[in-house]
Amino acid sequence: MPGFIEPQRATLKSKAPKATWVEPTFYADVEYKDITSEGLLRASSFRGLFKGTGRT
């Protein structure tokens, strides 16, 4: 088939990134109208940052 390229395996191994887990210092206040079926926020807007332990 002209123009068709056979798939090839990757020859380079990727390194897994090192993660450092931290406790949040600031929290974002976000307002939204709806959540889509994909789990995305619809008509969202950033309201600001605040310090604390999170809102319930």
Description:
The structure is a single chain. The chain has 56 residues and is an all-beta fold. A two-stranded antiparallel sheet has the order 1-4. The protein has a two-stranded antiparallel sheet with strand order 2-3. The mean pLDDT is 81.
Unreliable residue runs? none
Distance between the termini: 59 Å
Q: Give the overall shape, derived from the CA principal axes.
A: flat
The total of helices stands at 0
Share of helix, binned: under 10%
Task: Spell the H/E element sequence.
Answer: EEEE
Oligomer: single chain
Give, in spatial order, the strands making up the sheet with the most strands: 1-4
Overall mean pLDDT score?
Answer: 81
Q: What's the count of strands?
A: 4
User: What structural category do the secondary elements indicate?
Assistant: mainly beta
Cα-atom radius of gyration? 21 Å
Strand fraction equals: 25-35%
Outline the biggest β-sheet.
2 strands, antiparallel
Give a topology summary.
Blueprint: E1 26-31, E2 34-35, E3 41-42, E4 45-51
Antiparallel strand pairs: 1-4, 2-3
